Amino acid sequence: MSGDFVLALHGGAFQSDRDYTRHTQTLETILKSGWQNLANGASALDAVTQAVIAMEQSGLFIAGKGAGPNSEGEYELDASIMDGHTKKAGAVAAVRGVKSPILAARAVMEKTPHVLLAGTGADRFITECGLERIEDPQSYFTPSHTESQVPEDKNHGTVGAVALDKNGHLAAATSTGGLVGKRAGRVGDSPIIGAATWADRDLAVSTTGYGEYFIRAAAAHDIRARCAYLGESLEAATAKVLDGIKSAGGWGGVIALNKNGEIALDYRCSGMHRGVVRSDGKIYAKSFPDA
User: What's the CATH fold of domain 6-286?
Assistant: First the structure.
């Protein structure tokens, strides 16, 4: 695998049968850009950051611009990122008015000794860092997804990315607006290292779905632990974690990538916006199960 690289994305798991052509096309565009970045020598950390920023800005997913309001009409966003080479991580939870939550999470990782900042303290930190703010949230956010009309436990659109760069380094990132209509202050799995996001020198993971179940399962780290301690394949470990979440009453999906370039794109729900590109430039992008 020396010199080879891989980028995989998800735009959220879902429980519906809508036409998601635009979502798939958007993932293809982001994958093409990500391929170019990695081909030019970008780090895995930069690749996942840029991919998630693009999904946040697209307005198509329940993250960044596409986030929906909580039960009080406010927009509270979560994100996390982890650099597998250094095992450093950063996250923000329940932040308001920031255009790119994943950049805020990366700032926590790179500019503080902490892993997670939340609420008003995180908002102040974001301002101190000079990250772009949203002046008028009501006009900025465009929750055009019709999933806002379905029960909150069937509604999700978290975005995420995992990457392996030319140097063999891995990284993972996850960003979300959370469940549309969620209780104010609710924080799901997306900013929780080990639940939604994990990266080390062997494996990188990003999850999506009904977050409370992924938190209880420590899903992202459990996949890594199954591979490391039980010797399970990446595909088997991912499937077992998702099966456990489903049997507990949850649903969702996972993208996972190991240092050998092996990928798992798996889910337990109607579908998952997902895609992957390797160093050969071939792009795979789907929302529903393969035919």
Answer: Glutamine Phosphoribosylpyrophosphate, subunit 1, domain 1 (3.60.20)
**pLDDT tens-digit profile, the chain (291 residues):** 458 999 999 999 998 888 999 999 999 999 999 999 999 999 999 999 999 999 999 999 999 999 999 999 999 999 999 999 999 999 999 999 999 999 999 999 999 999 999 999 999 999 999 999 998 988 999 874 544 444 444 445 799 999 999 999 999 999 999 988 899 999 999 999 999 999 999 999 999 999 999 999 999 999 999 999 999 999 999 999 999 999 999 999 999 999 999 999 999 999 999 999 999 999 999 999 986
Which residues on adjacent β-strands are paired with residue 6? 164, 278
Structural tokens at position 219: 């899903």
| Beta-bridge mates of residue 117 | 92
Domain ranges of the chain: 6-286
The whole-model pTM stands at 0.95
**Active-site residue list:** 158
Rounded to whole angstroms, how far apart are CA atoms 81 and 67? Answer: 19
Q: Which residues on neighbouring strands pair with residue 271, listed in sequence order? A: 14
Measured CA distances, 68 to 6, 176, 180, 206 (Å): 31, 10, 5, 21
Q: How much helix, strand and coil, in percent to the nearest 5, is found in the chain?
A: 35, 25, 40
